[in-house]
Amino acid sequence: MIPLQQVWPDDLAAHYREKGYWRGETFSDLLRNCAADQSDRLAVVGEDARWTYAELLERAETAAAGFLALGLKPGDRVVVQLPNLAEFLSVVFGLFRAQLIPVYALPAHRLTEIVHFARKSEAAAYVIADRREGFDYRALARQVQAEVPAVRDVVVVGEAEEFVAFDSFRADLSLLPTTDADPSKVAFLQISGGSTGLSKLIPRTHDDYLYSVRDSAVISGLSADSVYLTALPAAHNFPMSSPGYLGAICVGATVVMAPSPSPDVCFPLIAREGVTITGLVPPLALLWMQAAANTAHDISSLEVLLVGGAKFLPEAARRVRRELNCTLQQVFGMAEGLVNYTRLDDPEHLIVETQGRPISPDDEVRIVDDQDVPVAEGEIGNLLTRGPYTIRAYHNDDAANARSFTDDGFYRTGDVVRRTPEGYLVVMGRATDHINRAGEKISAEEVEDHLLAHPAVFDAAVVSTPDDYLGERTCAFIIPNGPAPRGVEIKAWMRKRDIAEFKVPDQIVFVEDFAITAVGKISRRELRAALRQRLLGAAKGETA
Ligand code: OOB
After folding, report:
1. Residue 74 domain flag
2. What tens digit of pLDDT does each residue of 480-497 get?
3. Are 509 and 544 in contact (CB under 8 A)?
4. Is residue 17 one of the residues assigned to a domain?
5. CATH code, 498
6. Per the database record, which ranges form the AMP-binding enzyme C-terminal domain (predicted)?
7. 332-354 pLDDT, tens digit each
């Protein structure tokens, strides 16, 4: 098995420890300490669950024993693909307790993605829910096991059929490791948005991640009286740690798991549970503002709304206080590390017009031109960063690492930003070819690869186009092999490729050629940029 690692230079690691960023605490310590201090307080509310901290700890220990009883060994990787259930927390804290490594997949992922995660992480097990939104994850698990037999165990929250029922786990605590995990070691693998091809795996350590979580909780004003609503998919880095349900657990607050982020589901939960804080991507924030105008539910307990994952335009940001009667906190983060927040007491113009400033005084931010030369202060450039919770490498991916990190360890975020005189970042755009569709990052290259497998497709280039609601949507330019099929046929065919639905192009445009007249070789990036320009000025007639 390829070892998991995340290594910072010794001098920096020593500095991060000395500053108290890295405290030598593990995820298991976090829950154990919280349960010791707040045992009777409500920790988590799910569809049919209301667990105190003591109960969450007990369930996590039972889960840990159950996973180990299957024969899994500390260090084994386990793909977790669960919707927002209370069990999400007992499963992942169980895995942490057993020193197993969660690999976080989204409920929207399908066979192609799960097989990739399982292979790349060398997973030994897969945790799913039985069925959700009309989709049967057990059928998916059968296909995954057929393709990746190393995924020996499938554990199901709900009706297990031939698999192992999570409910059947018994608390044989003698199976639990007696020594603690090493807090400087990798605790879990997060999935990258992916700008080139398939998602990369992001190894995060206990030390680095818990630092970002603890300080996020302070920056977002969480206390034991807070109630955090997990509205976005719990596997995503934003609701996990910015400040997210882990931030809430850090301070002994209550976490409410919402099965869907829609106002229909979330407003009654806010009213019933007295939710004080949540996080949304921009399109959902727009939807919530619209719905708040004529809801019968009392959502006045909401104090803070975090918005991030994609650019929240100032015009929309300005409406939050008035229409939702709460404080907006913009968050610009990435699963690889760096997270920026506007502060709750910032002046209105910073909250509305910027994406915040870094968590840590030791987050190093460089804004450079395409030759990596720093631009003048206030100018627009590419954002590079390193710091106490930003990774130095992806797991097992030399090519991506060579591309994504500078020689002195800065992560190339791919984002184009400028810094205000106050030191706040404004996201201006992006240098890499991914599409940010309502916060879901889609790799142009990955979608093009799928399209090229279609017999009627000679060549394909996928670009983003602006969308009032989603922020961006995908448009695929296709040169057909002969007579052009209909766009809807291509979309239907894409859906059969067992990929997440959000990767199916929103729009398809057939063209005879890419009309690139420049002599010599043109990069895919230049090609996409040229096509995007053409689309922006194009007639609508030829689109499907
Ligand atoms: C969050 O994480 P990822 O890994 O899904 O995506 C990171 C990318 C950033 O590099 C940037 O391109 C974009 O998402 N992004 C934003 C943004 N927040 C993220 N672009 C403009 N404005 C923003 N506020 O998306 C994520 C992780 C932690 C907290 C929040 C978001």
Report:
1. yes
2. 999 999 999 999 999 999
3. yes
4. no
5. 3.30.300.30
6. 446-521
7. 999 999 999 999 999 999 999 99
DSSP secondary-structure letter at 454? S
Average pLDDT, the chain: 95
Please work out whether the CB of residue 333 comes within 6 Å of at least one atom of ligand 1.
Answer: yes
**Dihedral over alpha carbons 374, 380, 386, 387 (to 10 degrees):** 110
Domain boundary, last residue among 231, 251, 271: 251
Rounded Cα gap, residues 369 and 363, in angstroms: 20
Q: What is the pTM of this model?
A: 0.95
Ligand 1 centre from 227 Cα, in Å? 24
What CATH number is attached to the domain comprising 70? 3.40.50.980
> Which of 179, 178, 36, 199 minimizes the C-alpha distance to 104?
199
Contact 354, 426 (CB under 8 A): yes
Q: Which residues of 366-393 are buried (b: 16+ CB within 10 A; e: fewer)?
A: bbbeeeeeeeeeeeebbbbbbbbbbbbb
Q: Which of 540, 459, 458 is nearest to 507 (CA)?
A: 540
**What pLDDT sits at residue 109?**
96
Tell me how far the alpha carbon of residue 498 lies from the centroid of ligand 1, in angstroms: 25
Query: Cα separation of 79 and 95, whole Å?
Result: 11
SS3 track for 456-476: CEEEEEEEEEEECCCEEEEEE
Strands 434-437 and 507-510, by their bridges, are unpaired
Alpha carbon of 104 to those of 121, 240, 376: distances in Å? 11, 11, 39
Confidence of residue 541 (pLDDT cuts 50, 70, 90): very low
Nearest CA to ligand 1 atom 19: 309
* pLDDT digits 0-9 by tens, 90-130: 999 999 999 999 999 999 999 999 999 999 999 999 999 99
- First vs last C-alpha separation in the chain: 46
Residue 421 maps to a domain: no
Domain hosting 108: range is 25-251
Contacting residues for 288 by C-beta, under 8 A, at least 6 apart: 263, 266, 280, 305, 324
DSSP conformational letter for 327? E
- In 3D space, the residue among 293, 228, 199 whose CA is nearest the CA of residue 89 turns out to be 228
Q: At what angle do helices 86-97 and 53-69 cross, to 10 degrees?
A: 60
Cα 515 from Cα 503, distance rounded (Å):
26
What's the pLDDT score for residue 544? 41
CA of 72 to the centre of ligand 1 (A): 34
212 lines ligand 1 (CB under 6 A): no
Q: Which of 221, 251, 281 is the last residue of a domain?
A: 251
Question: Is the CB of 412 inside a 6 Å radius of any atom of ligand 1?
Answer: no
Q: State the sign of the Cα–Cα–Cα–Cα dihedral 7, 9, 15, 18.
A: positive
User: How many whole angstroms from 379 Cα to the centroid of ligand 1?
Assistant: 21
How many domains is the chain partitioned into structurally?
2
- Is there a contact between 184 and 8 (Cβ–Cβ < 8 Å)? no
Helix ranges, 171-222 (H): 206-219
Backbone angles phi, psi at 86, to 5 degrees: -55, -35
369, part of any domain: no
